Alanine dehydrogenase
Amino acid sequence: MQTLLLGADAVEDHAAMPAVIAAVAAAFAADARENTIMPAKSYVDLPQYNGDFRSMPAYVNAETWDAAAVKWVNVHLDNPRDHDLPTVLGTLIYSDPETAFPLAVMDGTVLTRLRTGAAAAVATDHLAVADADSLGLVGAGTQAYTQLDAISSVRDIETVVVADRDAEKQQAFVDAFADQFDVRAGSIEDAAGCDVLSTITPVESPIVNREWLGERTHINAIGADAAGKQEHDERTLLDAKLVIDNYEQCTHSGEINVPWGEGVLTDTDLHGELGDIVAGTLSGRTDDDGITLFDSTGLAIQDVAAAHVVYENASDDGDGTPFSLVDTDTS
């Protein structure tokens, strides 16, 4: 048997966003039904390099398919400036859960962007108003592109407002989508007034004020992925219908981690986990809801789901590079 090597281009080519969204939704539902195994994300902190490594293993049984994988991923904030490399780099090993054979080794950087966008789309589909047609983005990096691609798959987005302190990145984003949407550069306040808002920044002090939000804005809080990070006003977190992806991860390193640690937020302030909404055991948006917020820390089950789509499609298309990775001689 041989392992399939799939680089960034192959991952992107075989990960059509609607299929990734469906797989990620299935993984959330499987998790709610306790049909997943997902040890806590482990961190290797490297302050001398202003970065860290994260190990993310998981198994998902989504009824019509099951799969296992582990992702080795980092966040090195100085990479773009000092090394001309992305802040986040990832590698994923995708394995057959029955035999443990490594079916594929694939790029995890593009995969991370895709599954993060897909998770926001799943949350948006369940928590945003049905007629949402405007999307605000705070942060114009690579994830912003995937957020728009994913969210526009579940809502008829017409207007897009992108905010970023880097005017060059902001304009590049506008130029990239000018022929598809009514897209413009704006302030954080402009973006926050949209029907859907995705925030994708690594800040440690809130940058989105409560009063800037629309009455029924749905927020995808993506940027906080480590202890101490927070993008949103505490008043927003207290006022919103607050949905998390995972209790342990969000209270430790998600958007809610700082006010949680200070006792400002408690269990009574949480509506619940997204998986329970997808599985139908918890309500999503109701007519009485105002602001909703999804705290997305990124789960290993999402990586497994996205990798499943990529591997199956690449295998069907005969794409990728087969190679001998492990010794399978049993003699």
Remarks:
- The chain is about 35% helix and 25% strand.
- The chain has a mean pLDDT of 97.
- Residues 198 and 220 are 5 Å apart (CA to CA).
